[in-house]
Amino acid sequence: MKPRITVVGSVNMDLVFRTPRMPALGETLHGHEFRQIPGGKGANQAVAAARQGAQVNFIGAVGDDGFGTFSKQCLSAEGIDISHLTTINGVATGVAGILVEDAGDNSIVLAAGANACLQERHIDAARSGISGAQLLLCQLETPMTTVERAIAVAHAEGVKVILNPAPARDLSPALLKQVDFLILNETEASQLSGINVIDQTTAQTASEKLLTMGVVTIILTMGGNGALITQQAGSQFINAIKVDVVDTTAAGDTFVGAFAVGIANGLSVLEASIEAQYTAALTVTRLGAQTSIPQRQEVLDFMAKRKAM
Fold this sequence. Notes:
By secondary structure, the chain is α/β, with parallel strands linked by helices. The protein has 11 helices and 13 strands. Helix 1 (41-51) packs across helix 9, helix 7 (186-193) crosses helix 8 (200-211) and helix 9 (251-264) runs antiparallel to helix 10. The chain is globular. The two termini are 32 Å apart.
């Protein structure tokens, strides 16, 4: 039986430019390629979870435009339940302008569009989708009050909560105490903890501070520098999976979606994190957001190949 995961989050259309490097202020730079790719942190995480074998219910909002129609078609094609993906009349679908340089790093500018229109009433209307799930997955590209309502509903219904606090912002201890798994990167950990995360030592210090704020499990992802799992019983570092990087877009979202499936399937935090590392590593070898997220069999083959080396 497939694990059941509900995602509350954003839907964007990614407008992706490949460039030799990031342009300087006022500079016009010739790029290599342009692509239009479905994205948004919520949608990316939903697709990652679906491709790793979960039954996914998505709660979000798109505009009444071509991007919204296309985004709905793409999510539905993944087998994701979009019955609670609301179309907002007279509003544009969210858009992300993404520059990806040859080294693989990216810069992103967001226009929230319909994502900013996802309200608490939409969560209330979709309560059954949350209560019937094993896990709720949230990020911060939709209004904070909406995220808080979704997490409160999950907490009241006994559904475990994964929060990916991105984009980075301050969060209340009351909210964090309702979160079972906090998955964040160095920037987000620095924002939440007040400690500048630059290496494994500062990652440990920041994670330990976040524990005191009420979170049960913290997973701090550091890209090519691995990941750190911190719980009351202690911490464990996981090495990164070395690959040739093409584009880091959606790597974090893929990690989160894959981790959620691992936990829903009964894996330990360590086991789920390791599988998520392999899944995210495959993602960065490809261009784009949802176009780069691997299928389950690809991950299994990749893990077997690496472990045989």
